[in-house]
UniProtKB/TrEMBL annotation:
InterPro entries xrefs: AAA+_ATPase (IPR003593), ABC_transporter-like_ATP-bd (IPR003439), ABC_transporter-like_CS (IPR017871), P-loop_NTPase (IPR027417)
Keywords, in A-Z order: ATP-binding, Nucleotide-binding
Alphabetized SMART domains for the sequence: AAA
Molecular function GO terms recorded: ATP binding; ATP hydrolysis activity
Name this polypeptide is given: ABC transporter ATP-binding protein
Organism: Pontibacillus halophilus JSM 076056 = DSM 19796
Residues of the ABC transporter domain: 5-232
Top-level taxon: Bacteria
Xref: Pfam families: ABC_tran (PF00005)
Length: 240
């Protein structure tokens, strides 16, 4: 299988706080790779570095063989940040249309993709509502739709289902599986254990290190836990 993401010896500090210490990651095409860890462990910092938004103090990142940061690779990556970066005075359709034009899609293609991604996140009926009238969950769904819009090979999703109801969360995960089966690669940060179980591989981030990596089953077995939640707690998931 083809390696899509490689992180080598990444370290980063904010002031005196060393958030990431020596991170090595290799993610293959078609994997759903879950990042777990207590709040403040550095998950967002790590994904921002993979995407190329923040540059690490040390270490290197490659996405599809190209060293990051690289503006060109933004075509390859769909990034959904933890806080929504949306234009509140515009409608959801206008937001998506704007991002579609940034990616160079013509009007017809934009219209087609907007319908497709709006369907995935169940926003078809609310496309013409101004985003500042959206609920928190609707904004998350719109952010996810925008990350999917340009059909990127790599999706980096920072807590994509926070504030989304269980039924829709389930259908969004079905979509993630469909994308994976199409050969897309997904990195997902999450605090939700039943989502973690759906990942092909998980990494536990704690104290600046990736303290464990493996399939959910491997992580459970390593600490003789009976569930991924128990394994998470056993790896020190409850405290940073
Ligand atoms: N721009 C910044 N300036 C200073 N400190 C920062 C900055 N960004 C993150 N940090 C600190 O780095 C640490 C890791 O933060 P990060 O957001 O990466 O954690 P996280 O694992 O994503 O947490 P959560 O699960 O709560 O989202 C925290 O202590 C945070 O306060």
């Amino acid at each position: 299988m083809k390696e899509m993401i490689r992180v080598e010896g990444m370290a980063h500090s904010f002031g005196k706080e060393e958030v990431l210490k020596d991170i090595h990651v290799s993610i293959e095409q078609g994997e759903i790779y879950g990042l777990l860890g207590p709040s403040g462990a550095g998950k967002t910092t790590l994904v921002k570095m993979i995407v190329g938004i923040t540059e690490a103090d040390r270490g290197r990142v490659w996405v599809k063989g190209v060293q990051m940061p690289s503006l060109h690779q933004m075509n390859v990556i769909g990034y959904m940040a933890q806080s929504d970066a949306l234009y509140g005075e515009l409608s959801a359709r206008e937001n998506m249309d704007f991002f579609g034009s940034i990616y160079g899609y013509n009007k017809r293609k934009r219209k087609q993709r907007i319908q497709e991604v709006a369907h995935i996140v169940n926003l078809e009926k609310d496309l013409d509502k101004q985003v500042h009238h959206y609920s928190g969950g609707m904004k998350r769904r719109l952010s996810l739709a925008i990350a999917l819009l340009h059909e990127p090979d790599v999706l980096v999703l920072d807590e994509p289902t926070v504030g989304i109801d269980p039924l829709l969360r389930q259908s969004i995960w079905e979509e993630f599986t469909r994308l994976k089966n199409e050969g897309k690669t997904l990195i997902v940060t999450t605090h939700v254990m039943d989502e973690a179980e759906k990942c092909d591989r998980l990494a536990m981030l704690r104290g600046g290190y990736l303290i464990a990596q493996g399939t959910p089953q491997e992580l459970i077995q390593q600490v003789r836990a009976s569930s991924i939640e128990e394994a998470f707690l056993s790896y020190g998931g409850a405290e940073a």
